[in-house]
């Protein structure tokens, strides 16, 4: 049973779950447009500040592409199922070396068994709370590219091992280690590299390395980890839909750099998973109006969520 149906009526859920093709197109265009503007800003005013800003903003929009692929996995990006899958696959997933079908298979299992022994994401959240030193090491690995390089090498090696073996590909797609990555990397790598080449053609030869591959290996990995920690880190390992997931309030800077496209409303998403991301704030307000705020696990900021997970611990 969808948890939200115990607290919201059908007449309340129906408008929240309404999808819009126009809004889906706008979100995808906004994500790619923001990436283009970040590159253009450096092109107009090349200096260390605009370089660093471009890397950070592009890395956050790579997370944005992951979030929009996540919307497509729930068939919430577009009304039209075919458009949903094509755009979710080729304009959102493949550019960041992710595969929609594999992600959808694993992610729906996560929703079904959230924070229980059968949750494929439990390996992420069960590590928290942890020590401040442990989180520092994790963030250092992310920001220096070690996490991204390790994962990319792992993807390449997995692709060689699975080449031509359809049964092994299906098995790998259902495994957590491959859930967010494309088992058939050869389908995604040309898209990933092609985007880097287009960015280089727009400027200098090294722009694709600096403004697509570097953000992917660094800031994207960092904010992906922050997202995972904020959503389920240091929450209850139970079936309570108000306590096994966290909603984190985010201001304009956090939405730009860490939490694009309303991803911070994660408790609401788990309550009714097919509600489009842009309607989650309305759903949050509706739950508060029903007096449920005291039961909901929330954090006033991403800093506060990280502190719960151990950022300020000894």
UniProtKB/TrEMBL annotation:
GO terms for biological process: lipid biosynthetic process. GO terms for cellular component: membrane. Pfam families: FA_desaturase. CDD domains: Rhizobitoxine-FADS-like. The chain crosses the membrane at residues 24-45, 51-73, 185-203. Residues 48-289 form the Fatty acid desaturase domain. GO terms for molecular function: oxidoreductase activity, acting on paired donors, with oxidation of a pair of donors resulting in the reduction of molecular oxygen to two molecules of water. InterPro entries: FA_desaturase_dom, Fatty_acid_desaturase. Keywords: Membrane, Transmembrane, Transmembrane helix. It comes from the Bacteria. The keyword Transmembrane applies. This is Fatty acid desaturase family protein.
């Amino acid at each position: 049973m969808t948890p939200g149906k115990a607290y919201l009526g059908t007449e309340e859920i129906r408008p929240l779950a309404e999808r819009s093709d126009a809004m889906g197109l706008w979100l995808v265009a906004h994500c790619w447009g923001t990436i283009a503007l970040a590159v253009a800003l450096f092109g107009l005013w090349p200096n260390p500040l605009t370089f660093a800003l471009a890397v950070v903003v592009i890395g956050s929009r790579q997370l944005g592409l992951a979030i929009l692929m996540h919307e497509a996995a729930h068939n919430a990006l577009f009304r039209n199922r075919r458009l949903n899958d094509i755009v979710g696959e080729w304009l959102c997933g493949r550019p960041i070396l992710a595969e929609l079908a594999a992600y959808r298979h694993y992610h729906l299992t996560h929703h079904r068994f959230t924070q229980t022994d059968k949750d494929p994401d439990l390996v992420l959240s069960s590590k928290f709370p942890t020590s401040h030193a442990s989180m520092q090491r994790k963030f250092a690995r992310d920001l220096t590219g070690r996490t991204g390089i390790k994962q990319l090498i792992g993807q390449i090696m997995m692709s060689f091992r699975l080449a031509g073996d359809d049964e092994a590909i299906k098995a790998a797609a259902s495994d957590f280690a491959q859930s967010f990555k494309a088992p058939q990397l050869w389908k995604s790598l040309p898209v990933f590299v092609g985007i880097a080449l287009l960015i280089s053609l727009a400027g200098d030869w090294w722009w694709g390395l600096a403004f697509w591959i570097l953000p992917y290996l660094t800031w994207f990995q960092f904010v992906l980890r922050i997202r995972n920690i904020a959503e389920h880190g240091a929450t209850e390992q139970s079936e309570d839909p108000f306590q096994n997931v966290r909603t984190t309030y985010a201001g304009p800077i956090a939405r730009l750099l860490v939490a694009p496209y309303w991803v911070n409303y994660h408790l609401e998403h788990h309550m009714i998973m097919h509600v489009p991301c842009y309607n989650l704030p309305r759903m949050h307000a509706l739950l508060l109006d029903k007096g449920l705020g005291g039961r909901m696990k929330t954090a006033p900021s991403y800093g506060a969520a990280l502190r719960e997970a151990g950022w300020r611990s000894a």
